[in-house]
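Duplicate of #3305? Posting structure anyway:
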């Protein structure tokens, strides 16, 4: 580190025009450095801070320094820039051909970090994909309003390759099944229902076993369908009760008229 500082000091002296020397401070058009007791402190654009080897000061929305890249396929420079607010640090790559800037990282003094976002409003704000993995196996992935835990590749907003444990789960479906109790609803006859089950192997309106195994189930919709079947079953029970009462009354009439004799 001392050698690096010494080289920088030499460059400042060699290429900068020294204008004054006062109490160990040497000023040049590059900045100021102070060789106190063999410990050189350098200030670029400012007087060196006490105990700090290198102090930098830069105007708002100006580069602190650049690292130039001469890659054959991608030429440009990494920019360390003072933000427009004057208090944030922007780190990004400027393409030599187009001049476009990609601000890859932004740091603020308020414990806020922006990745591909130069104006973070939270402690960590990412404009893009977030991925955590172990041994190249994805464990957590966030992209395009989708969250994958365990394994990406499913067309859902949240996919978990494993068990989910929760104390409460709230589902808000778009519709419910109380239309079964409306007067306009036509309940299947029991013979019709029996024929449907014989032909298809499952209840009407419910998915088949093959559909469930291949496509899964939508929790809210499946609960709505199950409640619908319970309500339909309730109507069947009510109708059977009404039929039983009618048969009982007819039987009583036959007994009272003496036209019916029960065998003992």
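Output from current build:
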């Amino acid at each position: 580190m001392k050698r690096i500082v010494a080289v920088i000091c030499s460059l400042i002296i060699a290429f900068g025009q020294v204008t004054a020397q006062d109490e160990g401070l040497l000023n040049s058009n590059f900045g100021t450095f102070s060789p106190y007791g063999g410990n050189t402190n350098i200030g670029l654009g400012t007087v060196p801070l006490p105990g700090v080897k290198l102090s930098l000061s830069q105007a708002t929305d100006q580069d602190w320094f650049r690292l130039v890249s001469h890659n054959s396929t991608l030429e440009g420079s990494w920019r360390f820039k003072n933000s427009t607010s004057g208090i944030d640090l922007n780190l990004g790559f400027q393409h030599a051909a187009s001049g476009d800037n990609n601000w890859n990282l932004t740091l603020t003094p308020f414990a806020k970090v922006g990745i591909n976002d130069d104006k973070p409003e939270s402690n960590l704000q990412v404009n893009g994909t977030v991925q955590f993995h172990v041994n190249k196996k994805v464990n957590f992935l966030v992209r395009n309003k989708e969250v994958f835990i365990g394994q990406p590749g499913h067309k859902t907003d949240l996919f978990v390759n494993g068990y989910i444990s929760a104390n409460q789960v709230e589902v808000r479906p778009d519709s419910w099944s109380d239309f079964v109790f409306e007067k306009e609803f036509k309940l299947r006859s029991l013979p019709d229902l029996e024929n449907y089950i014989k032909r298809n192997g499952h209840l009407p309106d419910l998915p088949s076993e093959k559909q469930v195994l291949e496509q899964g189930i939508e929790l809210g919709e499946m609960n709505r369908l199950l409640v619908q079947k319970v309500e339909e079953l309730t109507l069947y029970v009510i109708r059977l009760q009404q039929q039983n009462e009618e048969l009982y009354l007819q039987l009583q009439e036959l007994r009272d008229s003496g036209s019916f004799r029960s065998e003992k």
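Confirmed duplicate; merging threads. Residues 11-30 have pLDDT under 50 and may be disordered. Residues 130-160 form one domain.
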